């Protein structure tokens, strides 16, 4: 009777270990996809450096537009 329980537990542990391996693999693939998506999102951004924090106020587009007109 005790041996049957041990065999069942060993089988369950094996199943759980297999599920952990699968979950770890899935997490790795999802992390890679997330990193790729974040990279694609960032590559289309334009960064303006050297401005004080919140210099644009709530009108980012008009701030950048007037700054470009002043500089160019």
TrEMBL record:
- Its recorded name reads Uncharacterized protein
